[in-house]
Design brief:
The protein has about 250 residues and is an all-alpha fold. Helices cover about 80% and strands about 0% of the residues. Helix 4 (about 125-140) packs parallel to helix 7.
Length: about 250
């Protein structure tokens, strides 16, 4: 009974390495606004919830339960979990990058607000977009897809197979491409708006060089950008959440 109990504990710890590594970087769960002990309890709770389904797989990976055989498995599982969490984090990093570009395109990037979703201050528009997308992940129940994807990852990436460096790099490159294409697609109206407005202001400045057109037009550029944001923000965030959900379902 003692050997059986210790084997179960070691197998559960192997599961915790992948699940904890994933939740350490996965959007929403890895927010600095969530206390570290809360994140730890969430990772432990998810591990214990999935353990009845995954313990046979973990037990086969560490048959003898020795420390020597546990260390490489633990490192491999930590890397795999971190990679899975990084794939989800790339989507929100792409959204944050393009939201910064949107704030710059409408002249709303000079004022920095308090950090909300990140540790460094950013433009209020960036914080609004990223925080809204994070909240929608939970409101649309996509956090359950994250847990389901973690359970399914043990079929696609078995513990006994270890971590494949080439496979991991290809997954990161594909996810990075998909994430930035998605973020560019949802932010394209603001980029088009920026091109048109700056072209018009540049022409006006050439026609009247004695008037500081850029300074005069700045309030109108901001007002037009906020007006466009008012009509497009629902589709902006909605399309991103649909794309992120599609990645969770198929990625």
């Amino acid at each position: 009974m003692i050997e059986l109990g210790s084997a179960a504990v070691l197998s559960t710890f192997v599961l915790f390495c992948r699940i904890g590594g994933c939740l350490m970087l996965m959007p929403g769960f890895s927010s600095p606004r969530v206390p570290v002990n809360v994140r730890l309890f969430i990772a432990i709770g998810v591990t214990l919830a999935l353990a009845p389904l995954l313990l046979p797989e973990a037990s086969r990976a560490v048959p003898d339960g020795s420390f020597v055989s546990l260390v490489p498995v633990m490192i491999s599982e930590l890397v795999i979990g971190t990679m899975i969490g990084l794939l989800g984090r790339l989507f929100f990093l792409a959204l944050q990058t393009l939201a910064t570009a949107v704030a710059m395109s409408i002249g709303f990037s000079n004022v920095f607000g308090a950090p909300v979703e990140d540790t460094e201050p950013s433009a209020p528009l960036v914080s609004l977009v990223t925080l809204t997308a994070t909240v929608l992940v939970f409101l649309t129940d996509q956090h359950w897809q994250i847990f389901s994807g973690l359970a399914a990852s043990y079929e696609a990436l078995p513990i006994s197979a270890g971590f494949g460096v080439r496979f991991g790099l290809s997954q990161v490159a594909d996810s990075l491409t998909e994430a930035f294409f998605l973020a560019l697609r949802v932010s394209s109206p603001f980029i088009v708006y920026s091109v048109i407005v700056n072209l018009a202001i540049g022409l006006a400045n050439k026609l009247t060089p004695q008037i500081p057109v850029y300074f005069i037009s700045l309030p109108f550029v901001i007002a037009g950008g906020l007006f466009l944001l008012y009509f497009a923000v629902k589709e902006f965030v909605g399309l991103f959440i649909l794309g992120f959900g599609s990645f969770l379902a198929t990625g």
